[in-house]
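Task 17 of the worksheet. Students: predict the tertiary structure of the chain below and write it out as structure tokens. Keep your answer in the requested format; marks are given for formatting as well as content.
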Amino acid sequence: MQTQAKYKILVVDDDPDIVELLQYNLEKEGYEVAHAENGQQALDVAKKVDPDIILLDVMMPVMDGITACRQLRENPKFKDTHILFLTARSEEFSEVAAFDAGADDFIVKPIKPRALISRLGAYVRRDNNQPEQAQVIEIGGLRIDRTSFIVHKGDQKITLPKKEFELLAFLANTPNKVFSRDELLNNVWGNDVFVIARTVDVHIRKVREKIGEDQIKTIKGVGYKFNTD
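Model answer:
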């Protein structure tokens, strides 16, 4: 995945007008576009075209987007695929459910094509400038395996949604260093991806529920750190 023109995007929406709008604008930018009408069809098409990015609606017939996202993330083939929700659902619980299922981003309709193109470009740039990182981090009784997105705590195997895993791995990679919410947003979500500080807090809470309360420490008024003290 070296150039934007080689990027394949799967658009999943049951509204043909939205699909047509997105396909027109994405192909104009040089992306290769496939589409599906529901979550089940998205799973089938994704296996055939191996997309780099999936744009996914929430409310669809046959299978909703949240379920489709969760099933995609269960397939190792799609662990590095960027999944962005484009949805009319603006409630916080829908956003939380999307991230819990493994989403990278959550964008509320109506869609603004130019803003969306800019956002997708940020993911392309991040892929092309991704620094080499240790594939396995062993710290604080945890074994964090980037290749499988699995965390082991003793004999316990813990599977985290993608962004929760990336957040934990980022903090654990530099233990005892305090990162502000803005720094975590920039490094885990990317500084061109428009999510809010609340998103960090929600993900930290979810990670703590799964690995224990003591590993990630809140530094009041500053941010968070992976604690080994």
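Marker's comment: The two ends are 40 Å apart (CA to CA). Helices lie at 16-28, 39-49, 65-73, 92-100, 113-128, 162-173, 181-190, 197-211.
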